[in-house]
Amino acid sequence: MPPKASKKAKKSDEPEAIDLKHLSTPSLTSQELCMSYRIARVPIAENSSKNLWSAFEYFLKTEDFVGADMARKFIQMGMTRAKRYANHKGGKKYDRSEREVTRDSGERVELAKSEGHQGREEKLAASEVFKAVWRRCTSDERYLELKKEFLEEQKVWDRQAKRGVKKEEIKGEEVSVKKEGDD
């Protein structure tokens, strides 16, 4: 696990490079990738997307689809988040949160897109930086192959779940399964 930062990073700080030697695999925490997730300006977005791409490649090299997909997800979030800040000043898309709607009842209304606000062009450019890297991720042959294998395994798991197979005990790498009714 990478060493913990001594101070909380500001959103405008340059993201630190991911230490691939200490990156968790096969499971990972999103916190490790979150440290590299920054969209403030184009140079920061370029550095952030480069770090996330390195993590993506590392997970592909270790054949860890879940890790690679998590890195791809952070790259995609960078693209969509920067786009939201480009389309809505302050990044606020709705007049209130889901929690407020549930608590106070009523409706959630989407705010009109703002145009010409300060920083809009830079956020659009930052979104395009992430978009280019995201497209590289989604078209990577190794990623597509691992995704195909994962989805095939998932179909098997889903079929087993429908037949009533339950996980009973997990110890290390050994997994015992038990059908309902077997005691």
UniProtKB/TrEMBL annotation:
Superkingdom of source = Eukaryota
Bias-annotated ranges (Basic and acidic residues): 11-22
Region annotation (Disordered) ranges: 1-23, 160-183
Basic residues composition-biased segments: 1-10
Query: Could you tell me which Pfam families the record lists for this protein?
Result: DUF4385
Record-given protein name: Uncharacterized protein
Q: What species does this protein belong to?
A: Recurvomyces mirabilis
State the organism's lineage.
Eukaryota, Fungi, Dikarya, Ascomycota, Pezizomycotina
